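2024-03-11 09:14:02 INFO receiving multi-entity request
2024-03-11 09:14:02 INFO entity count = two
2024-03-11 09:14:03 INFO echoing inputs for audit
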Amino acid sequence: MPQEINKKMRSRAREMLASGEVTQVLAWEAGEFPNYPAPAFFKDETACGRILYDRFCTANLSKFMIEATRQTGRTLVFLRPCDTYALAQLIKENQINREKAYIIGIGCEGNVAVNEGEERGLLESCRVCVKTDYPVCDELIGTENNSRTVVTGSERFEGVTRVEETDTSARYDFWQVLLSRCIRCNACRNICPTCHCKVCILEGENPLEKQFFHIIRAYHQNGRCTDCGQCARVCPQGIPLQLLNRKLIKEYKPVEVQP
Amino acid sequence: MRVNVVAFCCNWCSYAGADLAGTSRLVYPSNVKIIRVPCSCRVDEAFILRAFARGADGVIVCGCHIGDCHYATGNYHTRQRMESLFGLLAFMGMERERLRLEWISASEGAKFADTMAEFTAQVEKLGKNERYTGDCIKATDAEAAEGI
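2024-03-11 09:21:47 INFO inference complete, emitting structure
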């Protein structure tokens, strides 16, 4: 239950800050609007009462850990299974100092999509979720009640297969209609945990930008995307960007060198 | 109608193969514009997209045969990258026939000429590239897209 987990999260955060094991806590707090919790850092015990965890906590906290672990002191972070996958990827890419992170895995029942403050059913990335384990974590809270349904096999790539089955020009039209909605707000790039280049090739006046932004964005995550679905979640125009990433995940083969 | 084909050739095998085709006086279509790269794995996705943006109608990436790379492992990376990129472009509606990956060694001048002739004919059949040319995205046939 999120409420119980929330209670345990608050008390654990207080304990850790009081004992000096960590200097800050990264979690969610109530946002400006209802049903939009925002990621936040908590630096003292009294503030820990504001820590919030419910089914609207959709933000992936792993990307904030890049900056957090570059500061002095240790950071306590609460991560759901899909977030720990993103964090594991960042550790692999030497972006996060593992010793400066204390990771608590928390139970997840899938997040609820919100549009204009209203619930719109399960988030697309949670609907086809395949992750129940925690590849990196120091302790777990409330994972015994993980009541999520996890998809298996081909169900995950349903959307991709549906597009693949059509002919080339229909696919082209499909993507042109969707991508013409893009306003180049860069939200998909900025939210992506594995998009952490200091200088992005898609920045500024670039003739490639107009049509190729989404090709390059998806392709740069090839083999690194953890399928957390944040790109599609933050898209203000509702473009199903995770389809591109899932297509790459579906066909991804690691480099096999046979000397 | 004259199509443009851009061939990325690795310095050690395919470019030497093209050289051999030339010195052996083999004929291959003049539509092919060769760009020399140190290794086929130097070709990144932006090169290919930029080629299409600047008016290429087909792009072929040529490298050493698997196991023969001058830098030992370069073409393994090429294979992995190009397969995913071509797959993604095809998924987004680009004709797969406009993209090709080929292994041509320095002694295969005839194979170079044949491949280029064959690939150019293949691209000619498709005509000029109208998709992903770097222009603003045009919302085309919305009804067709709704079917998916």
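2024-03-11 09:21:48 INFO post-check: Strands of chain B lie at 5-10, 32-37, 58-63, 99-103.
2024-03-11 09:21:48 INFO post-check: The radius of gyration of chain B is 16 Å.
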